[in-house]
Specification:
By secondary structure, this protein is an alpha/beta fold. The chain is 43% helix and 21% strand. It has a five-stranded mixed beta sheet. It has a four-stranded mixed beta sheet with strand order 8-12-7-11. A hairpin with an 8-residue loop joins strand 1 and strand 2. Helix 3 packs across helix 4, helix 3 packs across helix 5 and helix 3 crosses helix 6.
Amino acid sequence: MTAAPGPAPLEDRALDRLLDCPVALLDVTFDQLRTLLVVHEKGSALRAARALGRDQSSVQKQLDTLNRNFQALCGTALAEKRGRGQDFLFTPVGRSAVELSRKALEGGLDAFQQWRHQLGRTLTVGTTRFTLEYLGQAWRHVAEEFRAREIELRIVHVRSKDLWGKLDTGELDLVCGTTIVDPADSGELDRFEVLPWWRQSRPVVLTNLSEEELPGQVVDANRLRRVPMILPSAGMVNDFLRRWYGPEYRAQLTVAAEIEEIHYGTTLLRSRLARGCMVVTQGVGQAAVEGQFGESVPLRVLELDDEARPRLQQFTGVFARKGERARHTADHPLNLLWAAFEKESPSALADDPL
């Protein structure tokens, strides 16, 4: 096998320039540059600290260090404080540094991703809370080989709304997740290779309203507008409602409560602290009616009349970027885990919760 050519040697002048780098420049770290980018994006040290999961003082300290170093290098700071509550003002040098930092970090991440794929030493898999167990079922088929070959499996907990973006950008190699699809739109998942993992199901309405308050077994889009709704802050329910009512769906509905996860919503309904309806999958609806989330106020499940709306369905599967698996050999970690999912793919099981 012919070795790939290495980088061309530096000319003496270029080498001398590197050896003479100012100390202030050598002290700049990738972590500081990332902080600079986030501060530029968020506007303030406080909002950047929240995004980074750090203390505001830590972010401010990094920004002060960068300002001090660039003052020594260029005679100007990168970002200047303004009045209380106002965003940082980035200088022309600061704006140029932000663009240079973005290119350096994004280029580095892309390169690391490519090297990692080529070497097959790590595999990053994204799952939601409810699809993690499916990864566990597949993992048992490859765990011994991964350990023997020292292949690192990285598991990332992501929300349904973020799965596809992280797969598209290469942050994830494989996704085991759930999405809402329109069966009439066959091209919706065309940019992925898809292994169906769970039978499809349609959303339903879970309610603690009585038959007198909300009669019948079917509710349409117009009736749903007139009843109090419990809405998750993000996730597939929101995706479903957005496709039914458009981007401004919240303005068309009566919001009785907002929740972070679906089980909290079922508890709200059972406690009667909130009265109204919540869109869920058939699996969650059935479990709630059977009392699996606690015994209290009885709940009802209503069908959605979607004759005048897209006939949306929940779809759970394993997803990879199209063509990605074909670029690797059969013993590459991506193909090994995909084959393991194929062995475990069930033909008819209960619905996957949202």
